[in-house]
Q: What sequence folds into this?
């Protein structure tokens, strides 16, 4: 299998059976613990529907924290959660890979670093992690976007590693990707405005294409690699089954990271590369 060739042709790779069941179980347990021990005032609604997404301090300050974000549809008309909190969280982000022991153990696997090296990153560094629930019945859709929009480097280098911790199907909101779209220029840039907020800069006013996406159904344990310029999206989940996933984003240490990207980390948490083969 010519992994690098397929990746550079399509902008993504689907690698079944890349991580084992025990690792999936451990991350699911760790995420559940985070949610159960989080306090309600430290959670926030997350949505991609608003063009200027909700850019409160809670979101913009989460680059070097572990914070929980609610599903948009988690609340009843009276403003209370309509289901238990464990069924109400959209995602946890964005520094699980450096702050939570189970996620640290998983994330720095030398195989991930080797894979990113094979795909062209000279010095892969882990920048961002997200635990994504895609809850039963209320799991929100993610509209088409390029990850480079949010994690801008010069030249573009943001690369996603998305791990299916449960089976992801069309029915429960799997990823969809537009093959070859990674060869197109960036369309939006999400940047801080210097006044405590952030917004989208429109680089190409054309609407995002609606067609040409293919579903990336992914059995549990699958790793999907996503090029930072690839157009991708995921559907809502109206099924009774969740579609939990863990996503990592790496950048190339040889590329320049913009100072006005939304995700900024304090000096106490410098970016790290992957383990070497044989490291514990
Ligand atoms: Fe994405």
A:
């Amino acid at each position: 299998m010519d992994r690098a060739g397929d990746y550079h042709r399509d902008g993504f790779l689907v690698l079944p059976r890349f991580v084992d069941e025990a690792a999936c179980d451990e991350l699911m347990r760790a995420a559940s613990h985070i949610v159960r021990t989080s306090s309600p005032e430290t959670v926030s609604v997350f949505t991609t529907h608003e063009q200027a997404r909700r850019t409160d301090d809670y979101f913009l300050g989460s680059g070097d924290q572990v914070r929980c974000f609610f599903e948009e549809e988690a609340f009843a008309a009276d403003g209370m959660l309509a289901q238990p909190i464990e069924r109400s969280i959209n995602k946890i982000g964005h520094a699980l890979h450096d702050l939570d022991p189970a996620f640290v153990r998983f994330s720095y696997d030398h195989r991930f670093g080797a894979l990113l090296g094979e795909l062209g990153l000279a010095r892969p560094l882990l920048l961002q992690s997200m635990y994504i629930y895609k809850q039963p019945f209320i799991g929100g859709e993610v509209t088409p976007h390029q990850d480079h929009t949010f994690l801008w480097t010069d030249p573009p280098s943001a690369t996603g590693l998305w791990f299916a911790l449960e089976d992801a199907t069309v029915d429960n909101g799997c990823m969809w990707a537009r093959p070859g779209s990674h060869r197109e220029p960036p369309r939006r840039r999400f940047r801080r405005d210097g006044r405590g907020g952030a917004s989208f800069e429109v680089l190409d006013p054309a609407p995002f294409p609606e067609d040409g996406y293919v579903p990336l159904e992914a059995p549990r344990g699958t790793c999907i690699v996503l090029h930072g310029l690839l157009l991708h999206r995921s559907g809502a989940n109206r099924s009774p089954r969740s579609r939990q996933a863990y996503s990592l984003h790496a950048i190339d240490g040889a590329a320049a990271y913009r100072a006005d990207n939304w995700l900024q980390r304090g000096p106490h948490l410098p970016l790290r590369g992957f383990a070497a083969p044989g490291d514990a």
About this structure: The chain has a mean pLDDT of 92. The first strand starts at residue 12 and ends at 15. Helices lie at 3-10, 21-36, 57-60, 96-99, 101-107, 110-118.
